[in-house]
Every structure is written in C-alpha cells, then in structure tokens.
Amino acid sequence: MTSYFDMLNRHGLKIWGSFMVGTLAAAIPVIVITFFFTFMLAAIVLARLSGIDPFNSSPEAILETLLNPGMVVVGILFLLFFILISLLTSAFTSAGSIGVVADSIQKNKTGVGTYFRYGFRRLFPMLGLHLVTLLLAVLPLIPVVIGVLLFFTETVWGVAWGIILFLLTIVLYIVYGLVVLHAPAVLIAKNKGVFEALSASFHAFRTKFGQVALSALILFAITMAGGIVTLVLEGLISGINPLDPYAEVHPLRSFLSLILMFPVNSALQVIVISTLVFRYLRVIHPDPPSDGTPGSLRSGPEAPSPVESSKLDREASP
C-alpha cells in the first residue's frame, strides 16, 4: 500500500501546481465578471442620483430614490448572481482538488488536466452537495433560536436554558460536521450521487466514529498550525502586526503579501485535502483487494500463483 508520504513525494508538486492553476482559472473570470457587474450597478445608482441635488435634497429623498422597487430588484438580482457565481466557483475548485488527490491515490497519476476534468464533470453534483449541506446546516440552529428567545425573558431559568441551548447548538454543529466530513471525498473518489455520498459519509461516522473523529482532529491541527504560519509570514511580508487592528496598512506591501502567500495557502490546501481523501480511501473505507479477500491494499504487481510459477519454470527449462 502506498503511504501518505509516498503519495505526496510522488505527486505532491503536481497536485500543488494543479491547485494553483485551477484556483487561478476559477478566480480570474469571477473577479472580471464581478468587477463588470459592480461597475454596472454603480452606473445605475449614479444615473438614479443624477437628477437629485445632493446639497438641496434631504437624506430621506436620496434614500427613497435608492430604495425604489427597481433599485431593490436590481440589488437582489446582483446579490443572487454573486451567490450563484461563488457557489459554482466553490464547487469547481472542490471537485477539481479532490479529483486530483483521488487519482494520485487510486491511479498513481495526476495532473492539471485531471483538475479540470473533475472540476467540470462533477461540477453540478458538487454544487448540489454544497446546497444540500447548507440547507441541512440550518437545522442545528433551531435550539439556539429558542435559546435566544428564552434568554430575553430575563428570568433565571430563561437565561440558564438559553446558555444550555447555545452549548447544545455548538455540539450539534460539531456532530453535523463529522457526519458530512467525508461526503465531498465520496462524491468524487467513489463517483457517487449527492445523497449516496451523504449516506456513505454518515455510515462512516456511525461505524468508524473514532477514525472520523481522528480525521477531524488531524485536519483541525493542520489548519491551526497552517494558520499560525501564514499569519506570521503575512506579518513579515506586509510589515504590520497581524494582531493589531489599528496597524497602518501599506497597499503595495499588502498586495505583495497576497501574491507571495498564494503558493503557501495552496500548499496548505494540498495538505488538508490530501489528508482528508487519503484517510477515507486508505483507512476509513479502503477498497478490498482484487481477489476479494480481506487484507491490505496492494499497489505493486502481484506475484504469480504456484501453478503459474510451475508453468513458467517448465517453459524456461531447455
């Protein structure tokens, strides 16, 4: 079985490069489209305000002009468009990045083309998974909503129950995160549908809770360590204290920090996603050997059977 570090040693640079190329390919069109529509929205707002004298008009009149039904509809459409573009971009990058890692594990090959193949081919299933998980994430909010209502009763029991329900919501979100943790990996690596992926992720949570929780802890530790490293590097590059909210920001150095930190952030994403996918495919839900018997996965060529060895010996003898 190929180990995690062997996989990164063989394919790490290709995965890293694929992540950067794929992310840029997804981000640049979104930035251009967003800038264009923002410019159009600003032009519409200025056109509406062109007939108003800002020095002789009351704030109420200006606000009424901006909040007329036509402007509200335009604003809502712009917001919905921005949300849709963000969801599509997130689905594309998620599918592509998981696909690159999955192919490196399952097929021992990967590349930039793999990123785009999975990104486009599994775009809408991943989008559906994102939408379903977002909708399901609303359910754990119910206790905290009830808790807020009880908290504002300003009674001792109301405040106590409000705190309890708030803590319950935190626990529910942790459980929910563990339940759906591996759904994206299943969707791509196992080529499953949205609900099949959610079902498989829940099955992993139910049958191998310890391994799923360990995956979450490992990912949390990697994210925290990576966050600290990136925070320090950004501070060194930009020349400001990242913990000081009142520090003076230098636009040029901030832009330089954004450019230089992009490869670092991409490397962190490689480690996180590689860990998630590798642990699911090799630890939590490994494929059975080709002969169907229990045992570890084999990545190299199988040894010939005794019958085949005897036949080969006879053919080799004079």
Q: Which secondary-structure class do the elements indicate?
A: mainly alpha
Coarse shape: globular
Return residue spans where pLDDT drops below 50 for at least 5 consecutive residues: 292-318
Q: What's the gyration radius in Å? A: 26 Å
> What's the story with the biggest beta sheet?
none
For the record, give the distance between the C-alpha atoms at the N and C termini, rounded to a whole number. 38 Å
Strand-residue proportion: under 5%
Average of the residue pLDDT scores? 83
- The percent of residues in helical segments reads over 70%
Number of strands: 0
Number of helical stretches of at least 4 residues? 12
Element-by-element helix/strand order: HHHHHHHHHHHH
Organism: Novibacillus thermophilus
Protein name: Glycerophosphoryl diester phosphodiesterase membrane domain-containing protein
Transmembrane segments: 21-46, 66-88, 127-152, 158-188, 209-233, 253-278
Keywords: Membrane, Transmembrane, Transmembrane helix
How would you describe this structure in keywords?
318 residues; mainly alpha; 12 helices; globular; disordered C terminus; membrane; transmembrane helix; Glycerophosphoryl diester phosphodiesterase membrane domain-containing protein; transmembrane
How is this fold's topology laid out?
Layout: H1 4-49, H2 59-66, H3 69-106, H4 112-121, H5 123-136, H6 141-151, H7 156-179, H8 183-189, H9 194-207, H10 209-238, H11 251-284, H12 306-316
Organism: Novibacillus thermophilus
Transmembrane segments: 21-46, 66-88, 127-152, 158-188, 209-233, 253-278
Protein name: Glycerophosphoryl diester phosphodiesterase membrane domain-containing protein
